[in-house]
């Protein structure tokens, strides 16, 4: 055997090298003098493969008969003499780079203090055929792009995760068995260092079910992703990115206060962060790693961060109009990414085709054609009729200039005869009337049609359009029930089990069996449901909601009014108020369950709000003197208020009606309170 250990090392590296064709082609062109490029700037997060790529570049330099000069900014004093000394050491104490040398600089982010000197002083002295590769976590500073000379000589490459085939080759070279590769590829998300670490675990017979199952691996990845974090506010920003689909400066302000602008700038500069028109997004693998680490080290603060992200998205969704609602709905849907179908969503996000919007009228024919192709003319006729009644309820995903996915969510009652004509809607509303009727002011949401353009209800665009449009409905209307109709329960059943939606109605329509899953939001509020979904993402639980999370069956309007009057008389008697039927309503709801103090506070707040209504001061005063600062008797209250007894009683009756109306809007969800306080 000839050669030395270094030759064997280089050969082993080259055998296991995969991908990076674009970067290699650019480097080869520079190495052989094809084109004007002489400087390659390679950047990306830790562990993405920069050092591995530099090793491959060095091997190609040697094959070409040239001299590679490899230095690492992490081992160099970031000053001109330090760089010069490192080059001399790499050359065996020669002072100058020889003609045709190729300078390979790793860890270039550590040399930012000498970036200008290197660009303006050192590199211009090199021979015309020299090639320079600068590899670091950060993108190049502006002069590399804006200077007319360097702009012509420099090529910038942002290293991305490896593709599925490339990742499979890497794992194969590492000796991973074929049956294990798909799972490890899913965990690694194309990140080379993660694949290498997972391959080591697999070789030892330890294949984690998730990254959270391998804390040592998490620690190694965190070390590769993160340099020193400046402080607590910056840690909070990373926790926020681990939860949120998009992180905005407004969201950070809710979490870190006045530090938000500085934290935003720091986040935006991280190599694993991408800046887009709606905010910052983090690389999926880094998100997974951070999520697992925060869950392990600080579960309660991390839960509070998740709740703040949720509240911000909900408040913005409710305040938004038009397409902006769907952006915030996607933020919320993304928080459910541990669902059984999360992999499909990740694939769509990678393509960028994830915008759910209200359909235009000229798209209705496309939508009906899709429905007719998969469900027949009778269903298409019903869809066409519903679109004349509630056209604004049709959401679509567009791709390649066409409707790629659709969801039509009906809000009932509609006042239309279609509720009787459509056998599915008729059966759903009959179930509602029989089991738990909608109360005055409440609506029933029915996701009536759901489809993708290519694979019907198994289409990934159907998966996107359905949940995102439904979240908008669930959070912006006072709903009693939500129902989702499917003709493919075999595919959707596991997802609905995860969602705690029960299989409630089955009916034939248009020659196909329609299965309807539903949930009564009066029994489990949407806020509680979102917490349950997160917990199920961690535990894998499915099925009906736990009994401990369910409220009692909803009060009708008459019993609610009676309960309000009884509660007013017991406001200062917590023992009596604890027996109020209102304790099972939205008025008493908190993060940890029903609370007597919360019930009393909401009723008192309702009385205060009454005073803000036109001519409401007298009504508030009557309730105040009757229940809050109660006089010994109604006669005494009337005397204090300077009213005849008959007038006082007339005002009291009117005030009770108004207060009950106001509290009813809270109960049915038309007026929403932050129940986590």
Automatic annotation (TrEMBL):
Pfam families (alphabetical): AAA_16 (PF13191)
Lineage, highest ranks first: Bacteria, Bacillati, Actinomycetota, Actinomycetes, Micromonosporales
Superkingdom, natural source: Bacteria
Annotated source species: Actinoplanes hulinensis
The protein, known as: AAA family ATPase
SUPFAM superfamilies: P-loop containing nucleoside triphosphate hydrolases (SSF52540)
Start and end residues of each Orc1-like AAA ATPase domain: 16-74
């Amino acid at each position: 055997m000839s050669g030395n250990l270094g030759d064997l090392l280089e050969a082993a590296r080259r055998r296991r090298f995969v991908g990076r064709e674009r970067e290699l082609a650019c480097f080869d062109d520079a190495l052989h003098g094809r084109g004007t490029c002489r400087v390659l700037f390679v950047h990306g997060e830790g562990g993405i493969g920069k050092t591995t790529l530099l090793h491959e570049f060095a091997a190609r330099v040697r094959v070409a008969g040239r001299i590679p000069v490899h230095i690492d900014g992490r081992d160099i004093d970031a000053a001109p003499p330090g760089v010069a000394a490192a080059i001399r050491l790499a050359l065996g104490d020669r002072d100058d780079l020889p003609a045709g040398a190729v300078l390979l600089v790793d860890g270039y982010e550590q040399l930012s203090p000498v970036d200008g000197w290197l660009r303006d002083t050192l590199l211009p002295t090199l021979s015309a055929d020299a090639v320079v590769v600068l590899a670091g976590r950060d993108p190049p500073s502006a002069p590399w792009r804006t200077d007319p000379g360097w702009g012509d000589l420099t090529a910038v490459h942002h290293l991305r995760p490896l593709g599925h085939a490339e990742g499979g080759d890497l794992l194969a070279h590492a000796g991973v068995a074929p049956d294990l590769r798909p799972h490890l590829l899913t965990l690694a998300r194309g990140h080379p260092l993660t694949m290498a670490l997972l391959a080591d675990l697999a070789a030892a017979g330890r294949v984690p079910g998730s990254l959270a199952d391998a804390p040592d691996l998490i620690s190694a990845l965190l070390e590769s992703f993160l340099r020193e974090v400046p402080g607590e506010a910056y840690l909070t920003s990373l926790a926020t990115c681990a939860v949120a689909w998009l992180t905005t400066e407004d969201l950070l302000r809710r979490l870190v206060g006045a530090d938000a602008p500085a934290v935003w700038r720091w986040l935006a500069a991280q190599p694993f962060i991408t800046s887009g028109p709606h905010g910052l997004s983090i690389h999926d693998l880094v998100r997974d790693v951070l999520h697992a680490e925060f869950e392990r080290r600080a579960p309660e603060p991390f839960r509070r961060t998740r709740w703040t992200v949720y509240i911000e998205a909900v408040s913005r969704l409710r305040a938004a109009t038009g397409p902006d609602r769907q952006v915030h709905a996607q933020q919320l849907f993304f928080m459910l990414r541990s669902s059984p179908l999360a992999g499909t969503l990740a694939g769509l996000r990678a393509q960028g085709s994830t915008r759910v919007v209200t359909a235009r009228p000229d798209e209705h024919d496309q939508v009906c054609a899709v429905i007719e192709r998969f469900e027949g003319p009778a269903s298409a006729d019903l869809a066409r009729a519903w679109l004349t009644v509630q056209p604004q309820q049709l959401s679509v995903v567009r791709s390649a200039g066409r409707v790629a996915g659709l969801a039509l969510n009906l809000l009932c009652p509609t006042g239309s005869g279609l509720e009787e004509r459509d056998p599915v809607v008729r059966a759903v509303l009959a179930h509602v009337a029989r089991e738990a009727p909608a109360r005055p002011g409440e609506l029933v949401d029915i996701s009536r049609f759901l489809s993708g353009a290519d694979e019907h209800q198994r289409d990934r665009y159907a998966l996107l359009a359905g949940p995102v449009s439904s979240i908008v409905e669930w959070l912006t209307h006072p709903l009693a029930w939500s129902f989702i109709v499917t003709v493919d329960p075999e595919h959707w059943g596991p997802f609905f089990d995860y969602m705690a939606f029960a299989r409630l109605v089955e009916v034939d329509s248009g020659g196909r069996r329609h299965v309807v899953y539903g949930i009564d939001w009066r029994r489990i509020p949407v806020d509680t449901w979102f917490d349950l979904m997160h917990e199920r993402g961690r535990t894998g639980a499915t099925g009906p909601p736990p009994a401990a999370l369910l409220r009692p069956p909803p009060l009708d309007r008459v019993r609610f009014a009676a309960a309000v009057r009884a509660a007013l008389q017991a406001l200062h008697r917590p023992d009596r108020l604890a027996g109020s039927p209102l304790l099972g309503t939205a008025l008493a709801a908190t993060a940890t369950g029903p609370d007597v103090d919360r019930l009393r506070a909401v009723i008192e707040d309702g009385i205060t709000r009454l005073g803000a209504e036109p001519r409401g001061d007298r009504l508030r005063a009557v309730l105040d003197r009757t229940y809050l600062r109660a006089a010994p008797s109604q006669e005494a209250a009337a005397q204090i208020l300077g009213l005849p007894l008959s007038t006082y009683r007339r005002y009291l009756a009117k005030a009770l009606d108004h207060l009950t109306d106001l509290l009813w809007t809270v109960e049915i969800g038309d007026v929403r309170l932050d129940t986590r306080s």
